[in-house]
Structures are given as C-alpha cells and as structure tokens.
Amino acid sequence: MRLNVRVGVIGLGWFGELHCDTVRGVPGLELYGISTRNVNRLTTLQQKYSCSIATVDYQELIADKEVDLIVVCTPPENHAEIAIAALQNDKDVFIEKPIAHDLESASSIITASKGSKGKLFVGHILRFNVRFQEAKEMIDGGEIGELLSVATHRQLPAGRTEELLESTSPFISDAIHDINLILWFTSLTSGEVFAQTSSKRKLKNPDLGQIVIKSDSGVLANLRINWHMPDQTPFAVDEFCQVVGTEGSIYIGNQLDAMHLVNKSGLRVPDLFYWPKRKNGPVGALREEYLSIFKCLRHDQDSELTNIGDSFHALAIALAAERSARYNEVVGFNLLQ
C-alpha cells in the first residue's frame, strides 16, 4: 500500500496550473515536479510551488525515480510522446482528455500501458461531477425506463476560445465531454454520426458545431457546441444535458441554476462543481478525480470511473463527427471492431 504519491505535471497552461493547485490540496499527493518549455512560465510557477524539480525538459521529470505519477496537460498532439515515455519508465500516467489527437496515437498509448507497471488514467471530468453521477445512478436504477434520447449543449464565450481555435477543434476538445458521457449513460456500440459546423471568425477550426448520433439500438443523441457566445455570458461554461427515457427524463442545467451573484459589476455565476477555490485549493470534480486516482494507486486498484476504452471510443466518434462535417456525409462507426 502506497501512503504518498509524488506527482510531476507536464504542461503548465492555465489548466496545468489548476492541476498543480488541486494536487497540493489532496492528502497523500505531493507536487514534486513541473515542466514546461516556456522558461518565464516555469520560473513563475517554480516560485509559486517551490517544487523539487522544475525543468524545460519533461524527460528529466520522467526519468526521476522519485516521481510516481506523471500528469500530461499539454496539447493533444503531444500526449502520445510524453505518455508512452512515462509508461515505458513504469510511471503511472494521468492524461487530460482527449487521450490523444488521433486514433493511432491513442492506440499506441494504450499498448504502452499494457506493457507497463504503471497505471493509465484519462481525465473525463464529467464522470466526477456529482450531478452526472446522480444521473448515471438514476439511469442504471431504471428510474426513467428504457433510454430514448440524449441532448446536450456546451458553450463558451468567444473571448476565451480564439487562441484555442487555432490549435484545437471544439469537437475534440469540448464535444468529447458529452460523447464520453453518452458512452457512460448508454450501451452505445455502433451506429451513425452526422455533423455540421459553422466558422464565424474563419480561424483554423470552426466556432460552432452540431452532432447527431444514432445508435443501432435506437438511442438518438444531439450535441450542440458554440465557442462564440458573447463575452458578457455570465458563466465560464454554459452546459446542459437532457436524458429522456420511456418512463421519465432527467434535466441537468447550467450553473446559473445553482447560484448567481448580481452586484454593481453585473451578473456573475461562480463555479460550484468543477474547481471552486477554497483556502486549501480547488475542490469539486477535479479534486474528486485526483482522490479517485490516489485511491487506485494506494490500493493497486483499477478505476471505476476512468474507462480507457470509453476514452478511445469517444475520440473515435469525435473524429467521425469531424469527418462528417468536412465531407457533409453520414459516417458509420462500430466500436466493437
């Protein structure tokens, strides 16, 4: 039984920093090292965290025998190179979603994990959000009968997405949240996907998209992604999910349904679910994710919530949606092949 886990975080954008903050607030986890190619950023965060290792060369972090868990928070195209190197060094690895940017890279990571003493985790945070966990229990308990449809939307203010759209697709970076959720809620194994996109700002990737998934079992899913919400939108993420069955339905609203503050600065909606900050660091779903990982590592167990197969299949469907939008065609998928 491991009592402590030393963590090295690779990739120190705003979300990488949030991971560092979260690690520091979880008993049993130690933020041992950090790595980024941005020297100024590295210097700033080393001053903040005073880690044992702060390096521009992530291989140095992977090679250190004191490091137990490598957290990969880089852009998806770098995931495979880093994760495989860490797994080959028998490190445990936690990759922020998506598992990779293409299926070949994702397969390579999974293959490396099978030959490693380290465990592999992929961060699909919705599974650690209490609202979606409650919905999962209701579905599995038969409270809404046989599943018929799932509808979601996921929307971000335009000011937060312009730089992102030059490097990543909303389908791969955002819709994949809801695709993974649908895989968790349903027995989806095969079907068809049709998607369309619209590019308001003419950047490398489109601002808006819609995905329709029809499973061979008859379940219909409709996903909307909008990365061009007005900057005055009062919440960082506007998310909604409706699950309909033959005997009932579940509605999971955006965070405006939880709390809102109105003052002279206008309307503000604080995050109460994913990483709301308290004195000892962020709490919420990201912390629950780390608590789950620590439990798995401490007791040498597999995760009940981090399903590597679903991570791969969510990427497969997201890529199928991209192909559908690109060529304006229906694309079939079979997750059992």
Explain this structure:
The protein is of the alpha/beta class and 337 residues long. The protein has 2 domains: 5-123, Rossmann fold, CATH 3.40.50.720; 127-274 and 314-334, Dihydrodipicolinate Reductase, domain 2, CATH 3.30.360.10. The chain is 34% helix and 28% strand. The protein has 10 helices and 17 strands. The protein has helices spanning 14-24, 39-49, 58-63, 79-88, 103-114, 130-140, 162-165, 170-185, 285-299, 308-327; strands at 5-10, 29-35, 53-55, 69-72, 92-96, 120-123, 147-157, 190-198, 208-215, 220-229, 238-245, 249-252, 261-263, 266-268, 277-278, 281-282, 331-334. It has a 7-stranded mixed sheet. β4, α4 (79-88) and β5 (92-96) form a beta-alpha-beta unit. The chain is globular.
Would you list the SSEs in sequence order as H and E? EHEHEHEHEHEHEHHEEEEEEEEEHHE
Distance between the termini: 37 Å
Low-confidence stretches: none
As a whole number of angstroms, the C-alpha radius of gyration is: 20 Å
Total count of helical runs of at least 4 residues? 10
CATH fold node name of the largest domain: Dihydrodipicolinate Reductase, domain 2
Supply the helix-strand structural class: alpha/beta
The fraction of residues assigned to DSSP E strands is: 25-35%
Number of distinct beta strands: 17
Overall, the morphology is globular
CATH superfamily of the largest domain: Dihydrodipicolinate Reductase, domain 2
Tell me the helix content. Answer: 25-40%
Largest sheet: 7 strands, mixed
What is the CATH class designation of the largest domain? Alpha Beta
Domains (count): 2
**How do the strands line up in the largest sheet?**
12-11-7-10-9-8-17
CATH architecture of the largest domain: 2-Layer Sandwich
Please tell me the overall pLDDT.
94
